[in-house]
Amino acid sequence: MTRPGGILLFAHGARDPLWARPFEAVADRLRQKAPATPVALAFLEFMAPDLPHAGRELAAQGCERVTIVPLFLGAGGHVRKDLPLLVDALRAAHPQVEWRLAAAVGEHADVIGAMADVAWAQAGAPTPPRR
Amino acid sequence: MTRPGGILLFAHGARDPLWARPFEAVADRLRQKAPATPVALAFLEFMAPDLPHAGRELAAQGCERVTIVPLFLGAGGHVRKDLPLLVDALRAAHPQVEWRLAAAVGEHADVIGAMADVAWAQAGAPTPPRR
After folding, report:
1. Which residues from B are below 8 Å from A44, CB to CB?
2. What is the largest CA-CA distance in chain B?
3. I need a surface site. Which of B33, B64, B79, B119 has the fewest CB within 10 A?
4. Which residue in the set A19, A76, A107 is minimally distant from B14, CB to CB?
């Protein structure tokens, strides 16, 4: 029997607890969409759990495959340097799991389009936007 | 004659120039949607222009109203403390312009939904998501 793949959302973290709300909302949305899919949210700093702990939890749940999705808009050093090292450590710690590292969400046209639509709506567009 | 309102996108900035690509893509998308609308992109740190310079440019273009849209997912100290002070300074420097501060894009359901959809797609969803 193939167990379901898990989704591990990865965000930066901040000192202000309110900061995490959009990321928790993404996790909640995924859990509503796919109740059978294990979904975890981890942070680089300031907030818990971190990636090693959240990854261990998904491995303990029996995930054979986990996709790590960086909830970052810009992909700088955190996404392109820190995160691959953390994923290497997960692979070493849990070799029975296939750990897949996805591109940052900000690289995706649908997320860019959603941000542009929101900006346009907030500006109180006087005429409908051209799509 | 009422001149068009402007849109001032505000992002964090980073040392890595590639980091800015998604934010530039949002600005490009808006310019394609609404060629008559002045659109500028400004950064809190590391990248240019900063908010005072970009705001001055939009004021010089004759904008009577400018909506400042924070391209942040989480709203922590940068959005809730630093940015309002920067906007106050714009209001003092350019009182002929109506400066409107929008909520961070990460607070919007459409952006959260787009991130969840992207995460789901990247996880190689075995069955279509429930909407």
Report:
1. none
2. 55
3. B64
4. A76
